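[job 4417] fold queue: 2 targets
>>> target A
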Amino acid sequence: MCMIARARSHLGMNISRTAILCALLLTLLLLSAGNAGAALPHAVARAFLDEGIPLTAVSAYVREAGAVRPLVSHRPGKPMNPASTMKLVTTFAALELLGSDYRWKTEAYADGPLVGSTLEGNLVLKGYGDPKITIEQFQALVATLRATGLASIRGDLVLDRSYFAPVAHDPAAFDTEPLKPYNVGPDALLVNFKSIRFVFAPNAAGDATDVRVEPPLDSVALRGAPRLVAGDCGAWRLALGASFDNRADAAGATFSGRYPASCGERDWYVALLDHPHYVLAMFARYWKDAGGNFAGGVREGRAPPGAKPIATLQSPPLYDAVRDINKLSNNVMARQLFLTLATTAHAPPATTGHATEAVRHWLAKRKLGFPELVMENGSGLSRRERIAAQSMARLLLAADASKVRSEFVSSLAVAATDGTVRKRFTDDDVADQALLKTGSLEGVRALAGYVFGPGGRRYVIVCFVNHRNAGRAQPALDLLVEWIYAGMRAGASR
């Protein structure tokens, strides 16, 4: 029975993983046989303590689907910061309130007369909060416009961003990293996450570094490439000597350092410009590439009342977005989706207050009232958001029994396979047998999802750690997942 795990050193202790799991399994069997209390497994508790994490900073809840009592219940009602596992609330609510096939749209209007192939006026782009307009999709919108016969635009590019209420957003407020793409604020007309991809690679001759900029916007200048050098790849970004001059309407990037040839091709995403000027630069570039003429500026405005769009871009279905949000833990997309939820209960413009209200009303209708729940932006990129482990587990059990179960469960990262857990559990039997959502902030580590076993058995697992040493919690969190799976396998063998 104790051959369920491979023996290897773990958690810095001088015992094998096999021995740890054997002890955990014995605890599980005793709990099952004696109907004992659902305490945190001793070895898991020990793993937290050995990393300097007091058990008062841990909240955990584990329960089998269909069971009345939990297998593990440790401080289950304590409101905790869940980090990115809060996305589970947002995405489950969205699948049920909007429908898994929901699609966002982005519309283009002619604000002026069309004379032959010339628009004698402004082109208006109206956004409805699409969380993922890629470069390719934006090019498709431009191509649709060109297919109408439009070639020249004499006016400006007018952006209708009124679907979301305007709100001041400081990208440096969360962690003083304003150029990180995850700190990009929500916008009804978000394009390509407002980000630039810098791609570095040794040139063909092997004597210099090529730097590619995607998308190649005229308002983003590249000033100098790093020297190509020998040596280990290591902390290659630090070696680049990067500096960014970022303004609302123009930006520049300088790389005055070194790039190790051993790195091969690497990329770096940086959020530059403001939302309106990013869209302007994208449109100007790809309209020109499509053979169109445009020399105008950009300004805010509204779509002409009563007018019909001359071109419309539809997003992929919601379930695709939910997969990106949960597997890859995309904060910007989660914030866009959260604001979209506001429109299920209130007319636009969408606000975070209305989004929170929509989620609470949905939870109440499902008899899932979580009085401790605090939602700020629905992504978990927040110091304010709170939920209890037991509440999150109830949400997961409800999702497991819902009509959108397939879309929701398949959006989670597969242990040792993809998403944020592709490099975890790679040497363990639980690989491919757990679907999980992770969460990580400074002082926070979280894990929530499902562990599957023989005979269709499945457990929901939720564990939150809020402590200055939370960054050391991963081995203990993973051990809890392994313990659940080991128990199911042992039960099946009996």
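>>> target B
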Amino acid sequence: MTDETHFVEEIADKSDDYSRWYTDVILKAELADYSPVRGCMVIRPYGYALWENMQAALDARIKATGHVNAYFPLFIPESLLQREAEHVAGFNPEVAWITAAGSEPLDERLAVRPTSEAIIGTMYGKWVQSWRDLPILINQWANVVRWEKRTYLFLRTTEFLWQEGHTAHRTEQEANEEVLRMLDVYRDFAETELAMPVIRGRKSDAEKFAGAAATYTVEAMMGDGRALQAGTSHSFGQGFAEAFNISFLDMDGERRHAWTTSWGSSTRLVGGLIMVHGDDSGLILPPRVASYQVVIVPIYRKDEERDLVFEAVEGMKREFVGKIRCHVDWSDHRPGWKFNEWELRGVPLRIEIGPKDVAQGQAVVVRRDNRAKEPVPLSGLAGRVPELLEDIQRSLFDRAVAFRESRTHHVKSVDEIAEQIERERGFFWAPWCGSAECENSVKERTGATLRCVPIDGGDEPGACLVCAKPAPQTAVFARAY
């Protein structure tokens, strides 16, 4: 029997040390662990099941919009990467290079994929000859490597998992529609599956993706008031098509370059999920993506009691199979230890059942989000559990929206941000003239970056928060991960 005097190992309080709390939760809930490779993590089975559920939900949305999956090589010849100068300049500090194979030096260095525009653009240049070959709508699920100086489990690691969509279109209008369509896919995925409210908007030129004509983003607020970029969608104009010769014979007989886009999200969303919903006891997982939606905790002392409870548990499992992701904890830990353990792991619903419950024909159902307990007849579990899971999903989203609203400030000057951000981090909506100088001034004075210019409304036009010149747009500023 394991020593259970402290039940589940202690995790830091969110309010005392948010960074340590985040790391404690990941390690002790067994989502991931540090690996012997610098900056890389091992995603453990419980964390990988969570990622698989997220991946499946997003992949279904991507395919529903007409995209198909493919796979491209991990290694990119240096000559291909060099074709798009701005793109290379943006990624060069993070690129890992292969210079030898065994004991033989390579004739040309190979980059370990930091992103796939170069290799995919090269293939599109080969495949596209006529307007009839367009559009190309391809997504890939892959790993990428970016040599980060400072790493943070899930949020920023040297190697991470993601999906990256790459499309080519006949017209600029089609490409622009694609960019915004996929941005809305990310919004719907984040809000519907992850219960994570986001703001859709356009990045400033300083914050856009290297080589992009425009970058759009969905920005979420974490539990400490910082922003997290939860997905991006990029318009490349014709720049990448020109660099990689993606050209076609158009309907009128003229040869033209395609208009291309790219969009992606990654395992950093797992980190976002933890920070948006977790509490001092650990994870709170939204039911739609939770590794387990329900954990059943049998309670008994004697063998005959176990047999009685076992029969009831087997009945529950039959009701849930194919409908609810369920786990039964038959381990030899005490019930109190199990309750704490599954709270730490964030399972949305816990079902407790002992011999007295069986005699009464019921089980006790406990919600993770608010710890409310409810006795439910065994005959009614199949109907009540899905209702509770849907209610938890809605409640988590509503709670996250309320938190974001409580940390959202509409300000008129950089002085207001500087004064408030030290007391409480959050989103600061402010009029911005559009100049890089004013954007950089806010960053230098407050540590807040321009997260986006929101698509869905904003404040009335006013005077720029820095220079006081007319500001036709509102920008959202925040400190970010």
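[job 4417] complete. Note on B: The CA atoms of residues 85 and 211 lie 8 Å apart.
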